[in-house]
Design a protein that fits this description.
With 512 residues, the chain is an alpha+beta fold. The chain has four domains: 209 residues, FAD/NAD(P)-binding domain (3-Layer(bba) Sandwich), CATH 3.50.50; 84 residues, no CATH class; 83 residues, Alpha-Beta Plaits (2-Layer Sandwich); 97 residues, Glutaredoxin (3-Layer(aba) Sandwich), CATH 3.40.30.120. It has twelve helices and 30 strands. The protein has a six-stranded mixed β-sheet with strand order 10-4-3-14-23-22. A five-stranded antiparallel β-sheet has the order 17-18-19-16-20, with helices on one face. It has a four-stranded mixed β-sheet with strand order 28-27-29-30, covered by helices on one side. The longest helix is centred in the last third of the chain and has 25 residues. The chain is globular. The two termini are 26 Å apart. Its cofactor is FAD. It comes from Streptomyces prasinosporus. InterPro entries: FAD-bd, FAD/NAD-bd_sf, RIFMO-like.
Length: 512
């Protein structure tokens, strides 16, 4: 990127030769920057915090996030030194959700605190040339027909950046969302959670996991040999959401909910939040888009928040790159909003349901007992595991009906002339994949006709292979985010197969 600075006072402005501004350097912003860079888009991340926060509300990565990271060749780094577990909780009930029942190569949850996830994604973004600016706060955003401008306050003064697009990954109180005039309807908070990473003098009597009393709930887990994460959930007392949590308030809450404060002292992090749940009425306004918590917020139960935001980034990155490069088919960028709204609505709904079950009111006890009994049934347990892990997200995509259309492409074992491989290996560069499994000439002809007419054929890769797991399948068209955009069986007629494939390629990968 070239840089042109003018003036030398503290209000000097300068512009960069860049294409996308990402506001917010959390996990979602870092992943989006990497997705843009592997698609050869100039991107800069502006993060107001000068240093990465060492504290994390979020602890884990679920199966769909792990599958997606694997398709970018990043999963190995995330698994190094990290613990995984096969079970998770739903609404703090006594019966655990069994992730090992998932139909996934990664049927588990990975312990990766949000600050660690952010660091690893930042490293991967920098590796491919993304620019990260910490201590640079965006104070205003405006757009016109040709681009977007952001006013920024940095360590050396103020400046203005201009780019083709801007994406707000700046959290639930998103300045970008407000500047774009995007609505954020939802429900206010009625439950207060108080969180502290503290030393417990009475750690021998500390509970493990979620415990319920008549006065509320307590969540307690060890973080290391010294500190515990303790969280109380108060279903009655309201508090000012903008007020800072103190150790005194946390210990008072522990005594109220648990009957004692466990000798909590020396906090290294204190935080309070509510069960408010909101979702943006649209994720795009002109050249401004939003993702992650800027698009949806909910109570952090079930470990779904970060995972939901990461899938926003995987869905948006390649589409935004197509718009920047000028080959995006009509409606491609708008499909980001259309596809990602429904998964967020479902997460907001299930977190609200969990809050209702968590309420210690005795009137709720029979419902909890009934739900716990239901969770002992394999089908119910599997349903909840799939819901929490996001593996059943399927997009309603146009095209000839097929059992795989819109689904996430599985880890198929493929045999090519070069040897054996897995499907995820062909998606590491962030391009699409046309998988020819039957040697049908129509597949190759449709690809050759398309590739001969485009200026940047690197957006789609054609691979001929055999696959014993899908003997009846003629081929798959897989988008860069891993979702199937076209599929046909071997018994499909020639004209039907070629027409469906040609239309799908043009719909998702353009014609110029």
């Amino acid at each position: 990127m070239s840089e042109d600075r003018t003036g030398n006072d503290e209000n000097a402005e300068y512009e960069l030769d860049l294409e996308v501004i990402v506001v917010g350097g959390g996990p979602v912003g870092m992943l989006l920057a990497r997705e843009l860079r592997i698609a050869r888009v100039g991107a800069v991340v502006l993060e107001r915090l000068p240093e990465r926060t060492p504290h994390s509300k979020a602890f884990g990565l679920h199966a769909r996030s792990l599958e997606s990271l694997d398709r970018r060749g990043m999963l190995g780094r995330f698994r190094e030194g990290a613990r995984s577990w096969n079970n998770g909780h739903f609404a703090g009930l006594d019966e655990w959700v069994d992730f090992s029942a998932l139909d996934s190569t990664h049927a588990y949850a990975l312990l990766s605190e949000q600050t660690r996830t952010e660091r690893l994604l930042e490293e991967r973004a920098v590796d491919v040339g993304a620019e990260i600016r910490r201590g640079h706060e965006v104070t205003a955003v405006r757009q016109d027909a040709d681009g977007v401008e952001a006013d920024v306050t940095g360590p050396d003064g103020g400046y203005t950046l201009r780019a083709k697009y801007l994406v707000g990954c700046d959290g639930g109180r998103s300045l970008v969302r407000g500047a774009a005039g995007i609505g954020f309807p939802g429900t206010g908070g009625r439950v207060t959670a108080r969180l502290g990473d503290v030393i417990l003098a009475d750690r021998e009597n500390a509970p493990m996991g979620m415990e319920r009393t008549e006065r509320g709930l307590l969540f307690c887990v060890p973080l290391d040999d010294t500190y515990h994460r303790v969280s109380t959930f108060d279903f009655e007392a309201a508090r000012d959401p903008g007020e800072e949590l103190t150790l005194e308030e946390l210990t008072a809450s522990l005594r109220e909910v648990w009957g004692g404060d466990l000798g909590a002292h020396s906090p290294r992090w204190l935080s309070a939040f509510t069960d408010s749940a909101c979702q943006a009425d649209r994720y795009r306004e002109g050249r401004i888009l939003i993702a992650g918590d800027a698009a949806h917020t909910h109570f952090p139960v079930g470990g779904q928040g970060v995972n939901l935001g990461l899938q926003d980034a995987f869905n948006l990155g390649w589409k935004l790159a197509a718009a920047v490069h000028g080959w995006a088919p009509e409606g491609l960028l708008d499909s980001y909003d259309r596809e990602r709204q429904a998964p967020a609505r479902k997460v907001l709904a299930n977190t609200r349901a969990q809050i209702a079950l968590m309420n210690p009111d005795p009137y709720v006890t029979p419902l909890r007992e009934l739900f716990t009994d239901l969770m002992r049934k394999d089908q119910v347990n599997l349903y909840l595991a799939e819901m929490l892990s996001g593996v059943t997200v399927r997009y309603a995509l146009p095209g000839p009906e097929h059992r795989l259309l819109g689904d996430f492409a599985r880890d198929l074992e493929l045999r090519t002339d070069e040897g054996k491989s897995l499907l995820p290996e062909y998606l590491k560069r962030g391009t699409g994949l046309l998988l020819d499994l039957a040697g049908r000439p129509e597949v190759g002809e449709a690809y050759d006709e398309w590739a001969g007419g485009v200026r940047w054929a690197g957006r789609l890769r054609h691979v001929r292979a055999e696959c014993d797991q899908e003997p009846g399948l003629a081929g798959l068209l897989v988008r860069p985010d891993g979702h199937v955009a076209w599929a046909a069986d071997r018994d499909a007629s020639g004209p039907e197969l070629r027409e469906g494939l040609s239309t799908a390629v043009a719909t998702w990968f353009g014609t110029v």
